[in-house]
Amino acid sequence: MTVAAMEPAHDMIVVADHVHTCSDAGTVDALLVQGGTVAAVGAHVALRAAAPHARTLDLRGSTITPGLTDAHAHLTEWAFARREVDLSAAPSPAAAGAQVARHAAALSDAHASGEWIRGRGWNPHAWETHPHRAMLDAYVPDRPVALQSHDMHALWANSAALRVAGIDAGTPDPDGGTIVRDATGEPTGLLLEWAGRMVTQHIAVPTLADAAAAMREAQAELHTFGITGVHSFPGIHLTDPDPLSVLQTLRDAGELRLRILQHMALDDLDDAIAAGVSSGDRDDWIRAGAVKMFLDGALGSRTAWMREPYEDGSGCGMRTMDPDHFRAVVRRAADHGIACTVHAIGDAAVCMALDVLGDPAVRVNAMPHRIEHLQCCPVERLGDAARLGIVCSMQPSHLMTDWTIADRHWGEHRSRGTYAFGSLLRSGTILAFGSDVPVEPVDPRRGLAAAVHRQDLTGAPSDGWHPAQRIAPADALWGYTVGPARAAGLASPAGSLAPGAVADFAAWDHDPCTTDMILDMRCTATALAGVLVHAS
Question: Which residues are CB-contacts of 115 (< 8 A; sequence separation ≥ 6)?
């Protein structure tokens, strides 16, 4: 749908079966929108009497919520990932290799024989054998292949890609990464954490025009899920072009249809300070976020940093940032008005993040510090984030694929503090929910369902995994609306449909606060500033 302007020319009353305002106004059946802003909420009859000449957007038969915000998305990386081969359903390394070969054969003849083949989504926990470069060489021997794992913390490369990167038996492991080797010392093609960048840095950088085109396609898909805002993180393995430049290109062309909080990579901190950038700068469409850091790896690759060894005795995972360096960066950023957002999955990483970010001396007025993922938190520390004013940015859909792995690698006791939405919410923690796309699908219904039911897509476990940590549907919705607004440093009524809020909303064919069909409900309309950007 083409949108000529982002503000409606006339007053408009939006009417539906239910309008969840996510505010003290509660649930009503109509909104009065004036100049792209919610002017009043209440009964349809009363609003019509107050604004008799306003046009009507009739969405009866649906339920309206505030537009959703995905609070953790690698936006530019996902925009390109949508064009790559998806290996999430591959049942084995051999099947993945065959799929990559078909993808390579289907590419245009315009692609040179040396063009990289990229893919993502393979899940080693679904395979009985470990991926190896030879398994890819058998299908694609002459073109470099780089395949991101499901959790984006491992890269699987063929021999051609290793040759381009200059990786052989004599190549040392990089800081914060591991080149997996066989018994003879030869690289297997599996590269963990920062070792993956040794390969991906050799892949040609997409042009700004190509990135903008990919982003247009991506934002259109987001609208079909009721998403009107994104907290955008730097790419993990696709670091160029600069996400802010891509977004500004769309903004300059009048084509940006998302409200963006753009976080920065640690490597960009010095430039941001030199330019005088602070968290919260810019406007309602693109705002400067926090500086992103990594304290550990991931559960699936057993690189999440734990206080005690994994259940199989394989070690305590991987710390990816020196504690003293972390403290120094947080202090320096805070001194220049820049908040920090920290990847912490294992309990050791979470504890360090709480201790450092919770120091009153490093608070930033414009925006709270936040911990990304916070997957495993010691139960005795589940109240600390609220007490210290730290936002917990979590991705509930990870639970669907992680619960069995968490039990296997971390054990039942540590799993009691894993994805502990209920305990965190009851302690007063601000929860901001997202997808971590392209690690998981962008579909927010998966996150809502996981937070409410704590089950995977098969409905297991039947009573929910650690059911005391389930939260109510309205609280899960809050995690996609008001929670991200607070995480972005925005005061009430941001994130809601209360009077004074921007008229960003989504309409659903089932009520997300009452239905048992969260995964099946459909977004029928999405609006920004009262203008429809999606309708079905």
Answer: 107, 143
Task: Classify 513 as helix, strand or coil.
Answer: coil
Q: Which residues contact 247 (CB under 8 A, 6 or more apart)?
A: 215, 232, 256, 260, 262, 286
Quickly list H helices, 375-443: 384-388, 398-415, 421-426
Q: In the sheet where 370-373 sits, what is the strand order?
A: 68-73, 227-232, 259-265, 286-294, 340-344, 370-373, 391-394, 431-433
> Amino acid letter at 516?
D
3-class secondary-structure state, position 466: coil
Longest dimension (CA), the chain: 81
Partner residues linked to 256 by β-bridges: none
Q: What is the pTM of this model?
A: 0.88
Residue 436: C-alpha distances to residues 8, 28, 225 (Å): 33, 32, 15
- DSSP letter (8 states) at residue 388: H
Dihedrals phi, psi of 424, to nearest 5 degrees:
-65, -45
Between strands 68-73 and 227-232, the pairing is parallel
Instruction: Note the pLDDT tens digit of each residue in 245-297.
Output: 999 999 999 999 999 999 999 999 999 999 999 999 988 899 999 999 999 99
Beta carbons of 207 and 242 less than 8 angstroms apart: no
Give residue for tokens 């000449």.
Answer: 53
> What is the per-residue pLDDT across 357-414, written as a single tens digit (0 to 9) for each?
999 999 999 999 999 999 999 999 999 999 999 999 999 999 999 999 999 999 999 9
